[in-house]
Design brief:
Elements: H1 5-13, E1 20-22, H2 23-32, H3 47-56, E2 63-65, H4 66-78, H5 84-94, H6 104-112
Amino acid sequence: MWNCLPFIIHRHFDKDHSGKLNHVEFKACLRSLGYDLPILEEGQADPVFEEILNSVDPNRDGLVSMDEFMAFMISRVSENVESSKEGESAFRAITSGDRPYVTASELLQVRRG
C-alpha cells in the first residue's frame, strides 16, 4: 500500500494535471503531510521551503516531477531509520496481525495519535 501512497498524493495535488507539481501545489502537499510552513505574502522569502526545494527540485525548473517527489518521500521516510530491521519493526508495530503490509487507515490512525 505504501508504494501507491506517494502516487496518490502527487496526483491529488497536481491540480492542472500536468504530471508535475508547481511550487504552490507542492507547498500545499507538504502542509497536508504535516509540514509547518508559514503562509506568507507573495514575494516573501520562505527559508524552510527553499531548503526543501534545494533537495526536491535541484534543477529549479519550478516543477516537482513524480520521480523527484518519490525520491523526496523515500528520503523523508528513511532518514530516521537506522536499519531495515528497525524499519520493519516500526511497520509491524502499527499493523494488525501478521500481514506484510500496512493499510492507509492504520497509517492515518498513527498520524492522528
